[in-house]
Amino acid sequence: MKTMTGLDRLVADNFQSLKNQKVGLLVHPASVDSRLRHARDVFLEAEVNVCTLFGPQHGLMGQTQDNMIEWEGGQETGTGIPIHSLYGEHRKPTAEMLAGLDVLVVDLQDVGARYYTFIWTMLLCMEACAEAGVAVMVLDRPNPLGGVMTEGNVLDLEYKSFVGLAPIPMRHSLTIGEMALFFRHWAELEVELEVVTCKNLHRRSSFATNGLPWVFPSPNMPTLDTAFVYPGGCLLEGTQLSEGRGTTRPFEIFGAPYVDGRALADHLTSLKLPGATYRPLEFEPTFHKFAGQVCGGIQVHVQDRLKFESVLVYTAAISFIRQMWPDEFAWKEPPYEYETVKLPIDILAGGQSWRQDVEAGRDPWAMKKEWDSKLLPFGILTEGFRQYGG
Questions:
Q1: Which of 122, 124, 147, 195 has the smallest CB count inside 10 Å?
Q2: Which CATH superfamily hosts domain 6-218+380-385?
Q3: How confident is the model at residue 205 (pLDDT cuts 50, 70, 90)?
């Protein structure tokens, strides 16, 4: 049966729980119902008293193309409703932004990876609402990667940043509603929280099986395939390798002018990494790293999503490139996502150990074994907040 998101369920209930409430609404491009109507429009058409709009990284409607580009708020054309940016001067709502609200409604499509900043915007909003006495309602949406597999290391809080503010793994397997419940417990937030759960959602389902349309939640997350490679692919942002921004398949395509794509593809194939095929290619980014230059590299073609382990694959790829071309390869220098001292790769990886293992030429399978030992405690910690079975 087709999954109903939290927004769809609110629509079906004619917004009864928001009657006579002064509402703030945190949304982005993928905040749509089953008819592809944006939440902002649906709320206004239902005459919900939307007093304030908030937008996360990339803007209310995904206006800012690249990462680390701030945007400013203003007023919505036609309605005059104030719009507040939560990716600029403020990442956490101020008391003034929340003044007069009864409830802040969060409707954001996450992609299941620790670095994706929308869950951290939600956490900061929950903190602000706890301080201001404003209730929070999270409209749940499926985790596109499903709710079973976790991957990668768990964040060391010494390396927390806007790409990781809580001790969760690189691929976390929670929906955004489940994450909100976990955050309230972990951060000990005294906030009134309601999660409007999805209907007909099971832990093993994803967008490939639940009948929902894919709307890219950020400009470089164009397809469901992108979401599946992202938990490992985002580590490329901590290097001077092109992560494929400026191509039509970011994170699936990556490389650099000095990389021999055939050698990289052959190496990854030899490691018998499950679930994907690696196709050598050349590409020319239209913007970002190596814009206008021909790069060698590969495209990762995910063929079995149930077996594919993105963090393992991209760890192996980055390690091989560093070993093969040590004079050309480099880690990206700060600043990155508001961190000005620590290396971007360390805050992405959640500590120094991942980089140190790569620099030491450690076997990726051995690295994975160490990560996996810490995933079971995370699963136990979050078990009580998982809302869906199956």
A1: 124
A2: Uncharacterised protein PF07075, DUF1343 (3.40.50.12170)
A3: confident
